[in-house]
Amino acid sequence: MFQLAEELKNENLVITTLKNDRLSGVENKNETMFGTGVAFDILNILQAKFQFNYTVIVPKVNVWGSEKSGILDMLRNGQANLSVAFLPVLTEYSNDISYSPSLDTGEWVVLMKRPKESATGSGLLAPFTLPVWLLILLSLVVVGPVIYLIIYIQAKLCKDDHNNIFPLPACIWFVYGALLKQGTTLNPMTDSSRILFSTWWIFITILTAFYTANLTAFLTLSKFTLPINQPEDIGAKKSKWVTTRGNALEDSIKTNDSTLSPVGRMLGYPYGYLDRPDRDILRQYVDKQNMMFIREKPVVEYVMYDDYKEKTRNQIEEAKRCTYVITKFSVVSFSRAFAYSKNFKYKQVFDSTIQNLVESGIIKYKLREELPDTAICPLNLGNKERQLRNSDLLMTYEIVGGGFIIASVIFIIELIIRRSKNPNIKITKSLIKELKLKKPQKHTFHVNINNNYEKLGQLPFTSKFVTPPPSYNTLFNPPSNNDHIKKKNINGREYWVYDSSGGEKKMVPLRTPSALLFQFTN
């Protein structure tokens, strides 16, 4: 190896590269090509150690191997000794070229516009997943008949207990009313029915507590869920996406017979392979057309960071600076390396030094040298307070509107049924007045004794309330005229005030206000 290192001195190597943002590229100065990017930083380290010279040439087409006249053809035909770029290691090219040790594992991620609303669903449905909602709906349908069935069987088996059998509609309404935190007029008498009722109440209490807590967190936290959670969602939802021309993604999507590879079937055909700068793609396709941009992770991080800095310099308010987001998952991953021509003489010398650079962490450091340590515009922007928007309450409006519409439809159906039974009745103002509820008589209304149904199918016993009982002094002899006994109004209440035998003043209420709450039936 020492002899090869000596031979490498003053050797002039022909090098080609890809234009790949900060990873690799070229600049033309005075009709001379100079390499740029992290890949050429690595090459300059090799040049400083082995003291060779190099000449940079660019391929006719800025692609790796998906088209002719790309880097692969230049290495295969001997037009270049090596390619200095972060090239994916694809086994189908191994017969024509050779690779250096792996520089890193390249991840292709998705950059997209940050969604304004979470993709989890509407605000009122977001706290629970679909299976949870289906199970809650199932419990609402099943529990009512189960309660009725158990009470019915218990009453038939234990006839001496004088058990009340609640009607099935009453049991169903109890289940629904408990969900809405309503009370109930049912008064179970047996232990089994009481346990059933209390179990459902405990279940509803825990369920509503979880729902309230999760709904509060969903509406107040600035956390969004993306419309895609895995690479397969891109193809399944037929999302439009773009990428740059000539990168590894293009090579991995198509096979040699122009059919889709497994990666291609997962992602679907792209909207286009674009030979344009990344910033232009960001503005033209991601911003304006809301497409997804699939690219190497370091590249999209630099693009998003530059966009954030530009908006900061333009004094755009902080809430509008993070307009893009990167997926946490990778679409594809490839080991990346330099590529040599098949018979490159100094491969062993280069490989040894490149391996040392990888193991020391220098390459990993160079890839993120200008990026901040913190995450750039993460998916969760933190617990920032925000006001609720109409979109958060959209389902609330839909429920109210739907309720009114359903009630109106049922009302019209009732009128049609009534008219069909009595064809001579016309729908006029007199009919509408007839449909109105009649006002109850003064001081009377119907009640259900003990709030229980005595028998299955029997209507509850009704009674009329009478006026409250008279005051105390009308039932007993009023006190005689005495200077020591006087009638006084204290805090809105009337009292007899008198002196006791011990000399203390005592008060006797004429009538307590709570007496108005008590009524007696005939």
Brief synopsis:
This protein is an alpha/beta fold.
Structure explained in plain terms:
This is Glutamate receptor ionotropic, delta-1. By secondary structure, this protein is of the alpha/beta class. It has 16 helices and 15 strands. It has helices spanning 2-8, 38-50, 71-76, 130-157, 168-179, 191-220, 232-236, 248-253, 262-267, 278-287, 297-313, 347-359, 362-367, 394-421, 429-435, 472-475, and strands at residues 12-16, 25-29, 32-36, 53-57, 82-88, 97-99, 104-113, 241-244, 272-274, 292-296, 324-326, 332-341, 485-490, 493-499, 505-509. Among the domains are: 394-442; 472-517, no CATH class. A hairpin with a 2-residue loop joins strand 13 (485-490) and strand 14. It is 38% helix and 16% strand.
Descriptive labels:
522 residues, alpha/beta, 10-stranded mixed β-sheet, 3-stranded antiparallel β-sheet, 16 helices, disordered C terminus
Topology of this protein?
Layout: H1 2-8, E1 12-16, E2 25-29, E3 32-36, H2 38-50, E4 53-57, H3 71-76, E5 82-88, E6 97-99, E7 104-113, H4 130-157, H5 168-179, H6 191-220, H7 232-236, E8 241-244, H8 248-253, H9 262-267, E9 272-274, H10 278-287, E10 292-296, H11 297-313, E11 324-326, E12 332-341, H12 347-359, H13 362-367, H14 394-421, H15 429-435, H16 472-475, E13 485-490, E14 493-499, E15 505-509
Parallel strand pairs: 1-4, 1-5, 8-9, 8-10
Antiparallel strand pairs: 2-3, 5-12, 6-12, 7-10, 7-11, 7-12, 13-14, 14-15
Helix pairs in contact: 4-5, 4-6
